[in-house]
Amino acid sequence: MSERRILVVEDDEGIRKMIAFNLERAGFDVVEAADCHEGRVAVSDQRPDLILLDWMLPDQSGPEFARSMRRDEMTGEIPIIMLTARSLEDDKVRGFESGIDDYITKPFASRELIARIKAVMRRTSPAGRDDEVEAEGLVLNVASHRVLANGEPVDLGPTEFRMLRFFMTHQDRVYSRAQLLDQVWGGGVYVEERTVDVHILRLRKALAKHGFDKFVQTVRGAGYRFSVTGAS
To answer: What biological-process terms (Gene Ontology) are attached (predicted)?
Structure first.
């Protein structure tokens, strides 16, 4: 779990720092935001694996922020846990209707928070597991940072690894160069779109040694996709 990044959107600095401290002790990488605007910037730049979201924020409510995340194709799959002092059933229903994955009432123990985070991550992992995704004999393990092709190790650089991980967890969808830059490099990194082509070429070259380059497909005029369907 040490590579998982948590975004904490909480306007109370004392609470935010306490949560961040406990999460870092548990091995998470933590990004902090004091309001929804900072939260959106952090989502774009840091690409968190999960968002801890306060209900009452100065510029927008937590449920409104959650709904905006769910409407956006690029952020719709990020799990969200709502943190709030509201404990009424109607409030919980409103929270879940906004698209959140779990709801924790303040005050809460740090052990409970970490356990709930891990439970949500297990439920929302694209492959149903925390650390591993697989496609027709191609296996990517996040924890060990290894890729195996029919049991044989695939030699990938860090950028190619991130790109393959994104592709394997978002199969059969076409992504433009700009979208891949946002998802693989992050929104705050300024890289030319042609850089994507270079790393696609490197990824294909590494996979070609094992016969898996056919999964990384060019869609003329649109971008790239990863698909085992129709690959020959």
So the answer is: phosphate ion transport; regulation of DNA-templated transcription
